[in-house]
Structures are given as structure tokens and as C-alpha cells.
Write a structure and sequence with these properties.
It contains 6 helices and 5 strands. With 150 residues, it is mainly alpha-helical. The protein folds into 2 domains: 64 residues, Winged helix-like DNA-binding domain superfamily/Winged helix DNA-binding domain (Arc Repressor Mutant, subunit A); 60 residues, Winged helix-like DNA-binding domain superfamily/Winged helix DNA-binding domain (Arc Repressor Mutant, subunit A). A 3-stranded antiparallel sheet has the order 3-5-4. A two-stranded antiparallel sheet has the order 1-2. Helix 4 crosses helix 6. The longest helix is centred in the first third of the chain and has 14 residues. The chain is elongated, with a radius of gyration of 18 Å. One of its GO terms (molecular function) is DNA-binding transcription factor activity. This is Mannosyl-D-glycerate transport/metabolism system repressor MngR. Keywords: DNA-binding, Transcription, Transcription regulation.
């Protein structure tokens, strides 16, 4: 990204993101803030200002624990609910290997921090735990549809 005045850099980033959304290059979830920092070679605070600008314009919206989305698109449930639904959708059974953090990040387009938080909640609920090897395994299956979180 060419560097203009420091005060206007966040506007250049927001305009670039707006254009990607308009052209359909971003259709639902935006890349993580870390990915945007790398892509635009700017500071995290510049990315935060660019995202805040787009949010104020109603172009994007944030979802706690899930990231930033193009307004009116995407699954807005907390990440822990989406990951818990993975136990049902993938037909996993008690004792099966649970996906790694990296696999979950890629599948849900979420940051490692968000994935770790969801895993911790699932471990707290007794749904997953450390397996015999280094990874995690399914310890129990969720009851009903969706997961109640505190």
C-alpha cells in the first residue's frame, strides 16, 4: 500500500477494503486483523481505524469472537457454537480425533486466539480433551441444537 500522510493511511486501507467488497473479492468474512496488518504493511491501530470507518458507514459489522463480516452476510453465532456444531456436522464420535487449532483457523477463517478461546470453552464443557497423542479428542457429544455458553 503506498503511504500517504499518516493521518490518511487508514482511509486508503478502508477504501481498498470497500472496493474489494464492492467487486466481490470479499463476500462474507474479512481477513483477520493480523492478516490485514501484513497485507497492507501498516500498524494494527491503522487497521482498527479503517475497520471502524467501514463499520460506521454500515459496510461491515463485527461479531464478538467471530471477526468482521460484510454487513448482512455470514453466520453470526459465536465461534464456540460453530465449532461445537462441527461435532454433529462431521459425524464425530466419542474418542475421535478433534481438529487442530490450525485446521479450525482455516475452516472458520478465525484467529488462533478466537479458536483457542472456543476450544477452552469446549474443554470446560467436557466436550473435548487431551488425547493419547499430542492432539485433542472428542470426550462427549453436545445435546440438542446449539450450545449454551456462559
Amino acid at each position: 500500500m503506498p503511504q500517504g500522510s499518516p493521518r490518511g493511511t487508514y482511509l486508503e486501507v478502508s477504501e481498498s477494503l470497500r472496493e474489494k467488497i464492492r467487486k466481490g473479492k470479499i463476500t462474507e468474512a474479512l481477513p483477520s486483523q493480523s492478516a490485514l496488518v501484513s497485507e497492507y504493511s501498516v500498524s494494527r491501530s491503522t487497521i482498527e481505524r479503517a475497520l471502524a470507518t467501514l463499520k460506521a458507514e454500515g459496510v461491515i459489522e463485527s461479531v464478538q469472537g467471530a471477526g468482521w463480516f460484510v454487513a448482512g452476510t455470514g453466520d453470526r453465532r459465536p465461534l464456540v457454537e460453530k465449532v461445537t456444531d462441527l461435532l454433529r456436522a462431521d459425524g464425530l464420535r466419542v474418542g475421535d480425533r478433534f481438529p487442530t487449532e490450525k485446521e479450525l483457523c482455516e475452516r472458520f477463517g478465525a484467529s488462533r486466539t478466537a479458536v483457542r478461546s472456543a476450544i477452552a470453552q469446549m474443554e470446560g464443557q467436557g466436550l473435548i480433551g487431551k488425547g493419547a497423542a499430542r492432539g485433542r479428542e472428542v470426550r462427549a457429544l453436545p445435546a440438542g441444537r446449539g450450545t449454551q455458553t456462559a
